[in-house]
Amino acid sequence: MFHTNLAPFPEGFLWGASTSAYQVEGAWDQDGKAPSVQDLHEPRGQADFKVASDHYHHVEEDVELMARMGLKAYRFSVAWARVMPDPFGDPNPAGLAFYDRLVNALIAHGIEPIVTMYHFDLPLSLHEAGGWANRRTTDAFERYARVLFEHFGDRVKMWLTINEQNVMINHPNAMNPGRTPSQRELYQQCHHMFVASAKATLLLHQLWPDAKIGPAPNITAIYPETCDPADAIAADDWESIRCWLYLDVACYGRYNPLVWRYLEERGCTPEMEPGDAELLAAAKPDFLGVNYYATATVKAPKNDGHDRAPRNGDQQVMIGEEGVYRAGTNPHLTQTPYGWIVDPVGLRTTLRRIASRYAMPILITENGLGTHDEVAADGGVHDQYRIDYLQMHFEQAQLALSDGVDLIGFCPWSFMDLVSTHNGYAKRYGFVYVDRDECDLRSLERIPKDSFHWYREVIETNGASL
Ligand code: BGP
């Protein structure tokens, strides 16, 4: 659809940026923090999460930079194991104190804190007790939620429960170190995450009726590879299993009927406790966080033992499922050097589909370009490629607004360079360069990239400079 007049970005639009605790903080075992599943990763020749970007020791300086860039919002996650080293015990005062410093500095600069409660870093002790397959993890999450809401609820008014629950279920290896759960177990884990998220949602609404909370799945539009109706069914299946299941439970409080049948056929329906259905139905989010990087393309399965066709890849690389769909290719789209599809129009499509299905406010909680950056001879980082990438995605966000999508903010990934989930420090996303490489911590100096200055102007003009 063409628009004769583009809708302007609304007043109060949350121009933000995102990070997550384990990828940026470092101080992995300091001041009482217990290990999380992420601390088990010790990749050879690649950055681990022990020091990361050392945000823990640079927090005030980093917030100063956010203020210089003019950020209206900063999305970060709390490390569950920093606040609750014993998930069933008392909170760690030093852990709370670190986030107090961060939250207070943000507020002093007029930056809205948006807090993800759990971003891939399950406390190791919970993992060792069965992780999300163990129902007690939902009790631990509720306890943790109460600590966070009681402590920060006077200042933090926007919360995200779980980052990319759908990625954790569809790409489970990174979150389940040392083992590969069965599909049945994965959907039990998934159900427990739904329960945990619902409990947190109800609790926040009870304690702080003025605060807002939502999930943060990775949602992306899907294309059938051709107009063959069989490809369209495969695309529908993929979208229901990977995307709608998660938003249907959050928004409608019930499982998607197609996915429920798919689980029944495979003997994978989760065990529910009495009261779960009512709990899911009662917990209503206030907005939807959406991580968007790349669209996917699928085609009909052949059911010949090769539909899965596993490719080496990470959370954005499409893998098929036997008898359900196969990965397809899309000749209209390019890829990043790391093989991630670049599809700005796909962002508009994704937002439109979510809006027309759920009619809820949407916050883009992640989107960005991960690639190699270098400090030039003049001392700057000239990341025009990142500016181009973000410019295209912001333009499509504005088109989505013009289409009628209630888009409340855009938080690119990431505010500063941080450790990539799969590619260490070689793959950078930040507006701010951090002087370290894979294994050499160097100075850890912060250097604003060209994209930093470009984004400052976008924010200052509320998008008019695009
Ligand atoms: C999302 C995660 C982020 C971040 C991002 C980039 O799936 O929520 O934590 O890692 O992807 O991915 P990567 O670091 O693998 O490049």
Automatic annotation (TrEMBL):
Residue numbers annotated as active site: 366 (nucleophile)
Superkingdom of the organism of origin: Bacteria
EC top class, as a word: hydrolase
GO molecular function: hydrolase activity, acting on glycosyl bonds
Keywords assigned by UniProt, alphabetized: Glycosidase, Hydrolase
Signal sequence extent: none
UniProt name for this protein: Glycoside hydrolase family 1 protein
Keyword Lipid metabolism: no
EC number: 3.2.1.-
Record PANTHER family: ARYL-PHOSPHO-BETA-D-GLUCOSIDASE BGLC, GLYCOSYL HYDROLASE
PROSITE patterns associated with the record: GLYCOSYL_HYDROL_F1_1, GLYCOSYL_HYDROL_F1_2
Alphabetized Gene3D superfamilies for the sequence: Glycosidases
